[in-house]
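Q: Predict the bound structure with adenosine-5'-diphosphate.
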Amino acid sequence: MRSAAVRWRLTMWYGAVLAAVLTGFGSVTFLVMRHQLVERTDAGLSEELSDVASEVRRAKDREGMLAWLDRRFGQHEGFDFQITSEAGECVFSNARLGEQRLPIPQLERGNNAPHYEEFSLPDGVRYRTVTHPVEGPDGVLIVQVARSLAEFNHELTELLAAFLIAGPAALALTIGGGYFLARRALAPVDRMTVEASTIDARAFHKRLEVVKRDDELGRLAGTLNHMLDRLEKSFDEMQRFTADASHELRTPITVIRTEAEVALAKPVSESEKQELLGNILEECQRLTWITDQLLTLCREDSGITENPREPVNLAELVGGVAETMRPLADAKGQRLAAAVNGSIVVQGDAVRLRHVVYNLVDNAIKYTPHRGTVKVSITTQDHNVRLVVEDTGIGIPPEHLPHVFERFYRVDKARSRSEGGAGLGLSIVQSIVFAHGGSIELASRPDQGTTFTVTFPTATAAAASVCASNGSGSRGSR
Ligand code: ADP
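A: Predicted complex:
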């Protein structure tokens, strides 16, 4: 329906523009033609006037003048002649004029130029005349030459008739042709509308047909298809995320229910009760922890987390985290080395940056066996701050490397869960790093160790880029 409206609107526009062009063109042609005919007539009138005037001037007496005039102009084919005295008495007129009199215009005194004008005689014929006072044998005479415009008007009427017939015919043809063309041009839009209406959650794989890749509609279909690709990907991710989240939450809930059922099914001793309640509490803690992580991820994704941009001394922050984690490393007999000297400042949110460092160091300790080494270092290089967390742990097999930043992705699900992980830590880390305009890289070899390198712009570089982008909120490189 909408494309039909566009179709009609386009056709009406063609029609209106062509009607305006035809009217303009017709009017100009008509006026030019008329002007040329008038000029031609005036040239004829002027020629005849000079002939008559020279006869009048040359004449010695009125009788001689009238005899000459009658001989030369009495039966003239194209023009009519009238000579009047100043008192208005008709001195001479040619035979065709007969009793009819040409009206004498009011001539300006002192203006000796011939006077041209148009008028209609009582017989309805339109005339063009030239009037000029000429010195005759016995005083001034008003000499007039006239030409009927009947032929002239006939030519113009024919021209007008041609315009009035050809114009509407051309207009009708153009409107018909325009409608046909608009229909053909917009047909793919109708097809795309029908195709698009069949795409829904159950048929997200369907795409719009691209007939001609390079024309406007082909590009539109291509762009819509790319948009559908992205939407499908997000939709799949969302579905997977929901399934993973439900699965992750179901495990502790099942454990809690089972423990509670056991406690209720039979009388239990005090020590058994303690153990059951302890298990329930532990699962509750895990539930709380997972929901907290999910909430953090949602906040990071939606961008509703406030992003205070304050100078943060990352070296000091990393040193603090290392000290906090040291007892954990000591408990596993690991060496935790922190190379963090001086003051290295980045622009950002101290709490979330601490989360990044904490998570990376926690993973390094978690996935490094007893007596391994975990090293944290921070350096600056070319307006960038590089935070490196490396360990001599179990490493990550190459086939898992592209996926470890995905939500709920765990290399070894059983082992990771026993360590308390839900596969959300690195997703959160990545989101926070991107929100700070940074990037994160990972290098790992199984049984040799893993290195995470996080790069942030320094405080000055970040401030400059914020000024340049005028607060456009860069999400960093991915
Ligand atoms: P989790 O909470 O399960 O540790 P993460 O998102 O933090 O989830 O990590 C995802 C997966 O990446 C982990 O399950 C683990 O297999 C792997 N991983 C992360 N850090 C390391 C590391 N330092 N050494 C080895 N494997 C790691």
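A: The first strand starts at residue 79 and ends at 85.
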